[in-house]
Design goal:
By secondary structure, this protein is α+β, with helices and mostly antiparallel strands. It contains nine helices and 15 strands. The strands form five sheets. Strands 11, 12, 13, 14 and 15 form a five-stranded antiparallel beta sheet that branches. It has a four-stranded antiparallel beta sheet with strand order 1-2-4-3, with no helix packed on it.
Length: 323
């Protein structure tokens, strides 16, 4: 075990961030919604049903923020990257090809869900879980489209008719192992084109926040981070609410503004445990009880607002710690 304190920059030597049978991923910032989603994607991708050495994840203070530590997958970063890339490439692409827009006709989603259910088993339910993260077919708009996820921050369809599903398919096809390496181990520079899903507050390029007019500039983000975040979407399924769909992790605890709230924990937790943490009702309170969350092993809770920044697009605000 390395005796070096974990206070170096994210771009430092990987060996300084490892302990026996674990790996710290210093590129992922738990206070950034995209960083948190990417970490969930890592855990979900590495989780193999009935694996005795089940992957677990905890959060560690590192470099002035929180970074995830993965356990149960060894301490060799190259092996981890290869395992991630192989699993991501093998994941079911069918849901992303149903339509270029999101949302799309509810009947299309319903038919896809019926088929996915017939193909699902305890060992393989990726397609069904991905479809559940898109939206719910029982709630429809006046065009017959289903009510979709609050994770859609982009237009339902741009001038070319492309929306989150088309963007997601492109990211799935274009992400390389080097993209994953940069996302997991380096400080994010947000310099990758064609992959911005507006899940990071830094992607808010509103005119008022720039020194020049950004309208002619291409949106940039972190391709590897977004690819991993896409893999996390099934952990935030959409369910029917009283009058509209509700996305796991989202609520309006502070009034009219919709917020995404998430926990960080300092003890190793498996995928099922993390999924149960995301569902805790206490997290959606305006001020979560410190006693309640500490009893669950949660060390910090962060919240970001989902706000309209233009006619068609939304962004997350910088997250604030609420517990």
């Amino acid at each position: 075990m390395n005796a070096q304190p974990e206070t170096t920059a994210a771009v430092g030597s990987v060996s300084r961030s490892t302990t026996e049978n674990s790996l710290l991923l210093p590129g992922l910032d738990g206070t950034n919604p995209l960083g948190f989603l990417a970490a969930l994607g890592v855990l979900r991708t590495l989780t193999v049903p009935d694996d005795e050495d089940r992957a677990t994840m905890s959060w560690t203070r590192f470099g002035g923020t929180w970074s995830p530590r993965i356990m149960g997958c060894g301490s060799d970063i190259e092996s981890l990257l290869e395992r991630l890339q192989t699993a991501l490439n093998a994941s079911d692409a069918e849901p992303w090809t149903l339509d270029s827009k999101l949302p799309f006709p509810a009947e299309t989603l319903k038919a896809a869900c019926v088929e996915a259910l017939s193909l699902s088993s305890i060992h393989q339910r990726d397609r069904a879980d991905t479809l559940a993260s898109f939206g719910v077919e029982c709630l429809r708009d006046d065009k017959g489209n289903f009510s979709d996820t609050s994770l859609r921050m982009v237009r339902s369809g741009d001038s070319a008719g492309n929306g989150l599903t088309a963007y997601g398919q492109r990211i799935r096809n274009e992400t390389t192992i080097e993209d994953l390496r940069r996302a997991l181990l380096e400080i994010w520079c947000y310099d990758d084109e064609g992959c911005a899903l507006r899940w990071a507050p830094a992607e808010n390029n509103a005119y008022a926040l720039q020194w020049n007019n950004p309208s002619g500039e291409k949106a940039t983000s972190v391709r590897g981070g977004n690819r991993l975040a896409l893999a996390a979407m099934p952990m935030l399924p959409v369910v029917p609410g009283k009058h509209k769909a509700a996305t796991t992790g989202f609520s309006r605890p502070e009034g009219r503004t919709e917020c995404l709230t998430w926990p960080l924990w300092d003890q190793p937790a498996s995928l099922p445990v993390v999924q149960s943490l995301l569902l805790l009702e206490e997290l959606q309170q305006q001020q979560p009880s410190a006693k309640e969350i500490q009893a669950r092993g949660i060390t910090a809770v962060y919240r970001t607002d989902r706000v309209m920044t233009s006619t068609y697009y939304r962004n997350f605000t910088p997250a604030r710690r609420i517990a």
